[in-house]
Specification:
Blueprint (H helix, E strand, L loop, with lengths): L1 H19 L16 E6 L8 E4 L5 E4 L7 H10 L7 E4 L4 H4 L2 H7 L5 E3 L7 H12 L10 E3 L5 E5 L2 E7 L18 E5 L4 E4 L5 H10 L7 E3 L11 H7 L3 E4 L12 H9 L3 E4 H4 L2 E6 L2 E6 L5 H4 L2 H4 L2 E4 L4 E3 L13 E3 L2 H6 L3 E2 L1 H4 L3
Parallel strand pairs: 3-4, 4-5, 5-6, 10-11, 11-12, 12-13, 17-19
Antiparallel strand pairs: 1-2, 1-14, 2-3, 7-8, 8-9, 9-10, 14-15, 16-17, 16-18
Helix pairs in contact: 2-4, 4-5
């Protein structure tokens, strides 16, 4: 009798723990990269961008740091991966969702050089970022150089690897839909066997300038511009880049509806393998020899795989502060939309219902 009871409880425990498993949400712990490997980790830091490049010789480059609220999390992620110093810290442009988290990073780690677009932008976050850069220290305890990285800036961080800045260039673009976005640092890492293109929040105006300048945009791995917004990626760009792998950095359930349907459709039409931080967490891309490996932190659930627009119930107009039903005949233009999962979320953000489509909702 005692043996039967013991067997019963053992089976119960096995079934209980088996029922607790969620294979669609498998979490993979970060693993050290093999020797002689280039590794890029695209961090899941919410609605923003941040990527760590670790070169085969151990040197490191951090490209953006996500929003200010992600700073402590980003520092913890870097430490979890054994980072004790950073050779280069790159702020692609002065929007808070790219440089906010760098404030904490610059205070937490020795930094050898800081790269900035040089485009001046007035905001409290940008001011705090500049103050953090001024107070940063390198391993020798001195202030690191603050470098305006314009087109033509080129370094060789490791043997046979080149990092080249393709944008911005002077005169800075002005009068665009977003001047900070269109003066983003765009850089390309070339290993000879594979290339990585980082695009910041590049929009149409900057793409046109790059085309006119004859920039070499060819890359196997594309960091998709502007969190997958429709204004960041188009067919002419993909024809020039011809990526095999695309990574979209955006926040889960973000109010902007990123990534936009137009971007996902364009990438799909080109047969690009798409990875997203909002669905798959930290995404690691390794170049082992001549082979690219992609290691997402987790697998998305079926619900998560639905696009933000499919999960959206209401669409707001940030100019009028009015929100609409998704099938309303008077929706704002795609470039002038924000997305809300519930009426309560829209109204907490200061929006009121559109009378024609939601008057009797």
């Amino acid at each position: 009798m005692r043996a039967r009871r013991l067997l019963f409880w053992l089976l119960t425990l096995v079934l209980f723990f088996a029922g607790c498993q969620t294979p669609q949400r498998t979490i993979r712990q970060p693993q050290p990269a093999p020797a002689e490997t280039l590794q890029v980790v695209f961090f899941d830091i919410g609605q923003g961008d941040s990527a760590l490049v670790r070169f085969p010789n151990g040197k490191t480059m951090l490209i953006d740091g996500g929003p200010t609220s992600a700073g402590a999390r980003l520092v913890a992620k870097l430490r979890q991966r054994g980072i004790q110093r950073l050779d280069w810290v790159v702020g692609t442009h002065p929007h808070s969702d790219h440089i906010g988290g760098l404030i904490a990073v610059l205070k937490a780690f020795p930094v050898e050089e800081i790269w900035d677009s040089g485009f001046v932008y007035e905001s409290p976050v940008y001011r705090d970022y500049l103050l953090a850069a001024r107070g940063a220290k390198n391993q020798a305890g001195k202030r690191p150089p603050f470098r305006v990285a314009l087109k033509g800036t080129k370094i060789q961080p490791a043997p046979d690897i080149t990092v080249e800045v393709l944008a911005p260039s002077k005169p800075y673009l002005t009068g665009t839909s977003s001047d900070p976005n269109n003066n983003s640092i765009v850089l390309r890492i070339d290993t000879g066997s594979a290339r990585f293109l980082f695009t910041g929040d590049m929009e149409e105006a900057l793409r046109r300038r790059l085309y006119q300048q004859g920039a070499n945009l060819r890359a196997e791995v594309l960091k998709v511009a502007h969190h997958g917004s429709h204004d960041g990626t188009d067919v002419p760009l993909l024809r020039r880049v011809r990526p095999q792998i695309a990574v979209i950095s955006c926040g889960q359930g973000n109010v902007y509806g990123h990534p936009h349907k137009e971007t996902l459709q364009a990438l799909q039409a080109f047969g690009v393998r798409v990875y997203r931080t909002d669905l798959q967490g930290d995404i690691t891309v390794r170049l082992v020899g001549k082979t690219l490996q992609v290691l997402p932190e987790r697998s998305p659930s079926a619900q998560e795989q639905r696009s933000p627009r499919e999960r959206t119930r209401f669409i707001g107009n940030p100019r009028s502060k009015v929100y609409h039903a998704p099938d309303c005949a008077r929706l704002p233009q795609p470039s002038n939309r924000v997305y809300f999962p519930t009426r309560e979320a829209a109204e907490r953000a200061g929006y009121r219902p559109h009378k024609e489509c939601l008057g009797d909702y």
